[in-house]
Design goal:
Number of helices: 3
Structural class: mainly alpha
Mean pLDDT: 80
Shape: elongated
Helix content: 25-40%
Number of strands: 2
Distance between the termini: 54 Å
């Protein structure tokens, strides 16, 4: 790893100010965990990612999204939005 990334820096991932400094530096692209707060839930936990979904639940969600963009023709030959 040190051969690939020559500019390695150790820092405390709990220090948000240092993480912001590293992220905004002009050096090569920062790689790794820059900031981590174990007291805050991660995005996947908040959004319910990983919870099993039935085929019917997925189909219902997709149809609801498709219906938002469906254009239905009316009897007068004009189109109207759903």
């Amino acid at each position: 790893m040190s051969r690939i990334y020559k500019n390695q820096r150790e820092h405390d991932p709990l220090d948000i100010h240092r993480a912001r400094e590293i992220a905004s530096s002009e050096d090569p692209i920062p790689v790794g965990i820059l900031y981590q707060n174990p007291e805050v839930p991660c995005y996947e936990d908040l959004r319910g990612a990983g919870k099993p979904r039935t085929v019917e639940a997925v189909r219902k969600g997709l149809n609801a999204e498709f219906d938002r963009f469906t254009i239905w023709p009316d009897e007068a030959g004009q189109s109207r939005a759903a």
